Amino acid sequence: DGGRTVYFSGRLRRAMGGATTGAVRQGLAQVEDGGFLPERSFRSELNEGGWSAPELVFFPGLENAPQVTVSWVDPSETVCLVTVRANEGEMPWAGRSERPSRNAAWGPVEALDSLGEGDSFDPIYLAGSKTKILIVTTRQGANQSDLFLLNPTEGAEAMALEPRINTIGSEWGPRVGPDNELFFCRGDRQLLFMGGMVQPVYLDWPHRVLFSEAAPTADGQWVFLTMTQLLAGEPDLDLWVSERREDGTLGFPVPIDGWRPDTE
């Protein structure tokens, strides 16, 4: 919806001394010291009065799962792809949920067994497709993550992307633009694969700043991203929005709470 509807994931974080801090939203229960901090997805709409209060994206049967996060939603908001970690210590798996209309409740998350053995998380469909699924997985090595693509027209198994994308580093955070250009992260760097080349994504900022998880709107005009606030304990990730320029660079980012697409 041109960036006016946002699905985002959130969790509490650990501060100094082991206490938890952050926005306490529905589904983000407090846990004992050392426990897995639950992660959930929320939905918000931009209207004349600003962003609506984030609402929990609820899936039946997963109330107690440590992680239930949405990574892809179709424009009609009737199909979504989800990462599920059903129990602490188990591998995450990718699933799909459907509903008859935007205002209806989401149905159960069905596992995408076609992705094969091994963990699968952060699933997305390629632009214009409901069969080509891109995932993040550690199945090639427990100490690094890679990007795998399931293309049913080319084989029944998910295959690793080419060496220009997958390296000895960890690749993660895949999102695609309207022309199937691939935004992804390698380590702490935001990259873009387009025109057969991997290139860094430059942000209009006075110095190098850590940002990641760039996610373009369907028309490619805006890019949502996370920027890291290096606080004591776990990093605090905030949502920002930047205009995508013709040369591929990103304009000066605006915190999402104050962003208005009609005035920027």
Please explain how this structure is put together.
There is one protein chain. It is built from no helices and 22 strands. It starts with a strand and ends in a 9-residue tail after the last strand. The radius of gyration is 18 Å and the shape is globular. The strands form five sheets. Strands 1, 4, 5, 6, 7, 8, 9 and 10 form an eight-stranded mixed beta sheet that branches. A hairpin with a 5-residue loop joins strand 15 and strand 16. The protein has strands spanning 5-10, 13-14, 20-21, 39-47, 50-51, 55-56, 67-73, 79-85, 93-98, 110-111, 121-125, 133-137, 146-150, 159-160, 171-176, 182-186, 189-194, 197-200, 211-216, 222-229, 236-243, 254-255. With 264 residues, the protein is mainly beta.
Any chance you could write out the topology, listing elements then pairs?
Blueprint: E1 5-10, E2 13-14, E3 20-21, E4 39-47, E5 50-51, E6 55-56, E7 67-73, E8 79-85, E9 93-98, E10 110-111, E11 121-125, E12 133-137, E13 146-150, E14 159-160, E15 171-176, E16 182-186, E17 189-194, E18 197-200, E19 211-216, E20 222-229, E21 236-243, E22 254-255
Parallel strand pairs: 4-7
Antiparallel strand pairs: 1-4, 2-3, 4-5, 4-6, 7-8, 8-9, 9-10, 11-12, 12-13, 13-14, 15-16, 16-17, 17-18, 19-20, 20-21, 21-22
